Every structure is written in C-alpha cells, then in structure tokens.
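Let's sit down with a protein and look at its sequence and fold side by side. Which protein we use is up to you, so please pick one and set it down. Label the sequence line and the structure token line clearly, so we can match residues to local backbone shapes. Go ahead whenever you are ready, and we will take it from there:

***
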Amino acid sequence: MNKSFLERQLQKLASDLPSEFEKGVQKADIVQGGGRKGAKKGASPVNKDYKPGTGVGYGYGQSVLDPRFKKAIKEEGVSLKETPAQFAGAYASRLVVDAANDGSRTYWWRYNHPFAIAQAFMQKFINQSVIKSPTLLGATSLAVAAPALSAAGNYDITNPQEQFRPKGYAQTYTPLGAKDRRISSQPVQETLERMFFQRPGRPLKYETAKQDIPDLTPRRYGNYMNYLYNDKGLLNLGIVKGTTENLEGVPEVRIIGFPATLPMAGGFAGGTAAGYKAAKALPTTSPVRRALGVMGAGLAGSTAGVLSGKLVNSAVATANRPQLPTVQEYQG
C-alpha cells in the first residue's frame, strides 16, 4: 500500500532534521568563532564593539540572550520561520557556549543588587560620551552615588563605634548565645560586609530593637518580620517586594533581598539628572572644567534627592505612627 502524502512528508522531515540541526550548529560556530559576517556585527564572544564607559557592547558576552547573535545567524540564513531545525541547532550551540562561559550568569553577577541597577541607570546618561577621562568619570559616579548609598539603610554613617550598624539590626558576627547582638566579635569583617557588600544583617529581637527605635511598636515589628520572611512579593517570586512601614516606619523596597529606600532612589535620580543637565549646559572647550562642573552638579543633585526622599519618609512615618500608645505599650 502506498504511503499517504502526509506520511511521506513527515518521514522526509524526520530524516532531514538531524542534518539540518547540525547545519545550525555549524553556522552558530562560524558566528561565535568570529568568522564571516557574524564577527563584524559584534556577535563574537570577545565583543569587539565594546567601548569602556559607554555601555556599548557591554553585558551580553556569550549569552544566549544577546540580540546580536540572532541577527548574525539570520545573516547566515538561519531563522525560526524559514529554517526551524537550523535555528534550534544554532541556539543549542549557543546554550552550550553560554553555560560553559557564564554568559547569562554575568547578568546575575552584575545586577544582583539595587546599587548595581541604579549605577547602570546612571551610566546610561553620564558616560564617556559626556566625560572623556575615566578618572573624572569615576569621580563623578562616586559624587552621585555617595549621598545615595549613605541613605539606603544598609549602614548608619553616624554609628562608627558599632561598625556602622543600622538601627534595629543585629551584628552578623556575635558570640553564640549573646544577649545583646549589637556588639560584634569580628569588627573588621563586620565593617567590610556592611560597607562593601551592603549587608545590614538581620533584625534584632523586639525588646533590643526598641532601644534603638523608641517609637517601634509590636504591631509594626510583627508586620515587618512577616514582610521580611513570609511575603514573596511581586508575582510571588521573592525578587521584588515592598512595604510602606519598615522598622523605622518608612517605606522600603527589597530587590533580591537587599533594601532600597526613597532617599536612595532620590539621590541616584537627582544626581543623574543634575549631572546630565550640567553636561549639556557647560562648554566643551575645557574637558576638565566640564567634568568638575558635572561632578559638582551630580553631588548637589544627589544630596537634594536624598533630602527630598527623607521629607517624604517623614511624612509617611508621621501618617503611619499611632497618635496614642497601644494597649501593649501601656502594659509594657
């Protein structure tokens, strides 16, 4: 009995799939190896079009997410619509290269903290197209970031005697069974983790936290602990979540577990906007003068943004704060 037309087509497709898949792998290798048109379009793993300080060519590496890879293999005649088996082969190859060279994981390592995300936003506007000198560009970034970082709540710049421990939070390194976890047994390690890795630690028990924050109530403390440890946040993923009332009674957002506050966001936004505006307004005849002007504007804008955020925080805290002591407070 003769096979139906559909059966013959399916059999032909099945016999063609392996060879077509292999062609896709080979064409992906051409692109990834820098051959022919692919490398010219920046799909090579070495990122030949990378320009330091501008953001051009940065952040993809050998990632399967790199849009230039899709464009480059299309120029080799590979697309999902026209050659699906080759397309699958090309992306299978890319996945192997990605996994072996940490292409997509670079995203996680680069953007797994609110500060890193904020700095990426800032560098979109203040980069080497604005300030040519890498030294002055770095100084400008620090001028914008310094006030914002100090207002994020990860450390308290006024508390150096306790390794800048923020109010209401315990030291990470305390002796086992310590009654007061505000004293660290490893002050150097504590300082490094807090100042460089921006790790505030865990909240203190209520009685000790209230010594730091006199207006802290059991209700606020309980709500915050529930938010911190039980709330899964946006889409129930635990990546982004927020509360209008942290331990100090002000709004807080947590991104990948790290806190971000309105003063911090205001500092980065205000500093970036002021720096960018100054760069447009200042003459370009003196690069150093222009860079110093942008630096000063960035610092002033960041400081103003932090102060604005603190004003909003104060208004929110006042609205959240009960006008009279709770029953528990009377009994305490």
About this structure: The chain has two domains: 5-110, 114-152+217-331.
